[in-house]
Amino acid sequence: MEKEKRNRALIVMLVLCVIFVILSVLTAHEKGEMGISEVMRDAVLHEHEKISLFGLFDANPSLVSAFVVTALLLFAALLIRVIVIPKFSMIPGRFQMVLELLVGYFDKLSKTYSPHRNIFLGAYTFCAGTYICIGTLFELLGIQAVNTHGASMALPAPLADINGAVALGCLSYLVILSGGIASNGLKGIGLTLKEFSLPLSMSFRLFGALLSGLLVTELVYFYIHLSYLLPVVVAVLFTLIHALVQAYVLTLLTAMFYGEVSEKREKKAKKKKE
Amino acid sequence: MTGLPLNIDWQQIVLHLFNFVILSVGLYILLYKPVKDFMKKRDEYYRHMDEAADEAGKKALEAKAEYEAKLLKAEDEIAEMKKEATQAAKEAADITLANARTQAEGIIAEAKSLAESERERILSNARDEVVFLAGEATAKIMDSQKDVYENFARSVRH
């Protein structure tokens, strides 16, 4: 009896799959639409697909994503602050443990790599790590927006845009510079400027890493046939790994360089002339 | 301002920065600081508990040492008291023994004196009796001798 039920369910699922395959082939890209090379080029440069920002100017979709992510994060933080944090107990529950784990991780990271000056660094790495991680996972939601051509498009990760990556990379460099100045004054500026390639490397590392994920996903799922060969879970796992790795890498690098330049340098004793 | 490679747009970079700064300030005020403050408060709470436990342990050790010292002192005191009691008992026993000895000597002396006086009395009585008996005997002898003498005198006269 149970075997019959199982067979029946399998047949129903198979029929549904065949129907979806036929429908997906029928609704596939028409020849007039963008090809893969154009899609990938636009994913990098955002030349065609732009979104009007309150009618003021046409912005890259990632900027809109950045605003949406910020709004979502701030709303979630407000809810947590109002509802969850006042109920914190000495023996933490699951959610409290997750929050404490997050805050504790970034606090420990900053204390490990910059033991002499770490209060601001801890807060910065926490915010940057959260932004990168949640911002990257945001693309999984596939929130739709209307571009300037009137077509709908899924909002990408905020840092999959070179402008977002440059902003975060340069800001991290400025934070490192501020640590150097606060600890060593003018000498700190010198120490930080020595690493002049840091903003470039940080920006492009972040951009490259996040963009590569986007491009691979675009490439794989652009062709309808590959959508059946590779399950969706591959893209999800790929994005998850990106989110965690990039958040870890940027915060770790920032903490390391911050600790290095903010370390107190003792003045060398002048050699006495004999 | 466009025309830069890779479609870099300064305006959008600034907007990204503005967005991130707002997010950072919000996250710091709403999430990072309260959670960190709570963790710090809890650390303080457990540190105080730990310190209190250490202090209590230290006090307990001190009390234990104090009690042990007191116990040792009490044992010494008990030994001393025992020694004193033994000494006192010995002294009391000696006094009692001395008294008993004195009393016994008195009794013996009294007994001796009584015995002596009794002896004296008995001897005196015996002497009197001996004298009496001797007198009696002499009288008797004299009576018996009277016949002898008379016989002798008669014989002589004859």
Could you characterize the architecture of this molecule?
The complex is a heterodimer of chains A (274) and B (158). Chain A is mainly alpha-helical and 274 residues long. Chain A has one domain. Chain A contains ten helices and four strands, in the order ααββαααββααααα. A two-stranded antiparallel ribbon of chain A has the order 1-2. In chain A, strand 3 and strand 4 (152-154) form a beta hairpin. Chain A starts with a helix and ends in a 13-residue tail after the last helix. Chain B has one helix and no strands. Chain B has one helix at 10-157. The longest helix of chain B has 148 residues, at 10-157. The mean pLDDT of chain B is 89. Chain B has one domain (7-153). The chains are: A mainly alpha (274), B mainly alpha (158). The interface between A and B is large, with 45 and 30 residues.
Summarize, please:
By secondary structure, chain A is mostly helical. Chain A contains ten helices and four strands.
